[in-house]
Amino acid sequence: MAGPWTFALCGLLAATLVRATLSPAAVLSLSPEVIEGKLTQKLKDHDAVDILWRLPLLSTMREKPAGGNPILGSLVTFLMKYIIWLKVTSANILQLQIQPSADGQELVVKVPLDMAAGFNMPLVKSIVEMHMETEAQAIIRVETSERGGTLVLRNCSNSQGSLRLSLLRRFSFLVNSLADKVMSFLLPTLPTLVKSQLCPVIEAAFEDMREDLLRLVRVPISLSSGHLQFDLLSPAIKHDVIQLHLQAELSDSQGKVTKWFNESAVSLTMPTPEGEPFSLTIRQDVVNAAVATLVPPEELMVLLDYVLPELALRLKSSIKVINEKAADQLGPTQIVKIVTQETPELLLDQGRAKVAQLIVLEVFATSEVRRPFFTLGIEASSEAQFYTKGDQLTLNLNEISANRIHLMNSGIGLFDPELLKDITAEMLTSALLPNENGKLSSGIPVSMVKALGFEAASCSLTNDALVVTPASS
User: Fold this and answer.
1) For labelling, which of 61, 148, 375, 425 has a CA lying 20 to 30 Å from the CA of 16?
2) Of 66, 307, 67, nearest to 181 (Cα)?
3) Is Zinc set as a keyword in this record (predicted)?
4) What is the distance between the alpha carbons of residues 200 and 435, in angstroms, rounded to a whole number?
5) How far apart are CA 40 and CA 37, in angstroms?
6) Backbone angles phi, psi at 93, to 5 degrees
7) Could you tell me the residue ranges of all domains in the chain?
8) Cα-to-chain-centroid distance, residue 333
9) What is the average pLDDT score of the chain?
10) Mean pLDDT value of segment 360-365
């Protein structure tokens, strides 16, 4: 039976976990620039401008004359009888604006509209045209439910104080007076039409954009023998940036999930915003798992005298210091066996990257013998450099350092393995490193770079994450 100390300890651990800030596997941050561009395209796809061209100005004015004022309503009804037609003659949606709300928890979407409308009456020989400026406004917010959070667009309407009407050309006093009356009747009509005709299109365009973004983050990232795939955990709004907090899963070549990455106490340092259109910040353990998939544990057998003859001579000289008789036994078919015990571990620190590996190295006098001269356990590390080419992210390992060497067993007598430190590092750099870099050279495609409208990616490191951004032109 568990004692009181057990329950107290469990309670303390639970409280600590609750207080801990959990980090997502990755965060995709989207700037107003990206949201504006995506939403603008979706409005085009939904023919929003055509909706403006077809606004039923005349019929709406007749249905709700003068905003319900009975006196003006009668005047509008009388005047409407003499208007032959009243139509939009040109329409444009100007540059969208995405701005943070006062509390920084929502985004205000402004859709400026620039239109012209004309009407004709029997008493007027030419068409009277008016310039109409107004603005639709909506709010992007995060709504939570039992299934999690989602981005929604709400409160779409005509922005207060944004409506301006003016004549494009002045006529006689009588015509100008009639035109002024028509414009005054349009003032309550346009906001009604914006809300009833345009707002549903804006809402549908936003929903399409949201679904596109979700499809974008879910596109599998191809690795050499599997895939890395992200999915949405929850969205957030930070000042003027939309953040998509992501989970991830790693699957093998058969599609079987081998590892999950959910929210974790593992730290994730977000980069300081510097006006980047977007950034994808990937937690260190996720990057590490992707690298491990590209470079699985392996075993190399190297005929050192044939492949690296100079190193073979240096190895013989080093062994001669330890055991001269053993050195004389080294033949032209001498073999160096290199076994990587585990997948490489990526370590990030102060914007730099290292890869640590556990390696077993054995030296055989000839290809015929079964017993090695000795077996060394090596704690090795390499400087690592991430770079990009187009939308491909690639890792390259530089010179391998043998940080610690342990003599695991020896058939030539006990010796200090530090005597072989330099030659061991050179053999790993010459034999193992090209093999690992060859596997890493295939790179990792980051398809969302081009999907978001950019040609190439750039990358940087924080203390605990890899950050992908668009390359500067």
Assistant:
1) 148
2) 66
3) no
4) 57
5) 5
6) -105, 120
7) 32-210, 294-440
8) 51
9) 88
10) 96
What digits encode the pLDDT tens for the residues 266-313?
888 887 767 889 999 999 999 999 999 999 999 999 999 999 999 999
Cα separation, 42 vs 113, in Å, equals 16
Pairing between β-strand 148-158 and β-strand 221-223 as defined by DSSP bridges? unpaired
User: Which residues contact residue 90 at a Cβ distance below 8 angstroms, ignoring those fewer than 6 apart?
Assistant: 115, 116
**SS3 (DSSP) at 130:** strand
Residue type, 124: V
Closest CA relative to residue 380, chosen from 405, 352, 363:
405
Whether 205 contacts 42, CB under 8 Å: yes
- Distance, in Å, from the CA atom of 273 to the CA atom of 284, rounded to the nearest integer, reads 19
Q: Residues near 247 by Cβ (< 8 Å), separated by ≥ 6?
A: 24, 25, 230, 231, 232, 233, 260, 261, 262, 263
Asked if residues 398 and 351 have their Cβ atoms less than 8 Å apart, the reply is: no
Considering the four listed CATH numbers 3.40.640.10, 2.60.120.10, 3.15.20.10, 3.40.50.880, the one that applies to the domain covering 294-440 is 3.15.20.10
